[in-house]
Design goal:
The chain is 80% helix and 0% strand. By secondary structure, it is an all-alpha fold. It folds into two domains: 14-128, no CATH class; 129-159, no CATH class. 11% of the residues are buried.
Length: 159
Amino acid sequence: MSASPARPPQSLARRMLPLAAIGVLAGAAYLFVGTDGISLDSLVSHRTAIDAFVIEHRSLAVMSYIALYVIVVALSLPGATFLTITGGFLFGIAIGASASVVGATFGATCIFLIARTAIGESLLRRFGPRPINLPKGFATTPSVISFSCDSFLRSRFFW
């Protein structure tokens, strides 16, 4: 594998623009939905209309659910647990869980790429060459150990 060519450094404003857009969109979503906008009670009260839509437009409903899940995860909005339960409620366990995993994966990938673009270079400068050597170490260890270490390191950021 060859090293990628060096890119010219981007200005701070250009790197922070996607991160600022995430902040603005998350704030707008919070203001639009508010604290009482989406709840299990509203889901139950609109159950017949939602079930009718899901029955008539199954593929569109699943794709819309995945898109909503991507948005919620990418904007780091609270409610992923609620959405996962709703997916099982609307589509059944197998399709609901699969759609939740797909939406969560794409949403997490989006926020990771945005964060890496915004602050990745400054973190590499701050921590030096140590983070660059991590993938090399994971490549030389067995996959189970690599997965365990990777999972442990990721879980430490959320405690």
